[in-house]
Amino acid sequence: MSTELKAMEGSICHEFETGLPAAAVWEVYGSLLFGKLMPQLLPEVVSKVELVEGDGGAGTVLLVTFPPGTPGSETFREKFIKVDDENYIKETVVTEGGLLDHGFRKYMVRIEIVGREEKTSIVRSTIQYEVDHEHAGSHAPPVFSTDGLATIAEAITKYIKEKRGSESVISPK
């Protein structure tokens, strides 16, 4: 009789009301501009985002570096597994480093920009995770939350509101 230990799986979600049209929010979230803005808008969260491969569509790989002194891993790689420009959905999965170094088997973030009425939208951020059996059964499983995604949604919304009206959110190539 096998006593195979199972991993703990789950998901957590956060929603942020933007007060902006979904298309305007997606201009940032659905493009590589998102990664370029993170170190500028939230240097205490992310110090650098580098494009490893891809053009911003599915298959794109980014290397994200945390500021010095951040607990845990210094960097992680994430891969875009879905970028849906019609439905405003982006899914990324951590492929190396980050929470994978701390007991997670899977760490996927799904960002969905949900249009509400005419001029507002919600950023729905969902984390789907799987923690290995060693950490799932321990008294102190790995800790994470949607706080970072909430902070990012607030910063991106503020950035778009400041840029809106004077010019396009995405600068010309």
Alpha-beta classification? alpha+beta
Terminal CA distance reads 62 Å
CATH H-level homologous superfamily name: START domain
Strand content: 35-45%
Fraction of helical residues: 10-25%
* Uncertain ranges: 168-173
Q: Largest sheet, if any?
A: 7 strands, antiparallel
Q: Based on the coordinates given, report the CATH architecture.
A: 2-Layer Sandwich
E-strand count: 7
Put simply, the count of helices is 4
Mean pLDDT: 87
| Order of SSEs | EHHEEEEEEHH
Describe this protein's structure.
This protein is about 20% helix and about 40% strand. It is an alpha+beta fold and about 170 residues long. The chain has one domain: 2-Layer Sandwich (Alpha-D-Glucose-1,6-Bisphosphate, Chain A, domain 4). It has a seven-stranded antiparallel β-sheet with strand order 1-7-6-5-4-3-2. β6 (about 105-115) and β7 form a beta hairpin. The radius of gyration is 17 Å and the shape is globular. The chain starts with 7 loop residues before the first strand and ends in a 10-residue tail after the last helix.
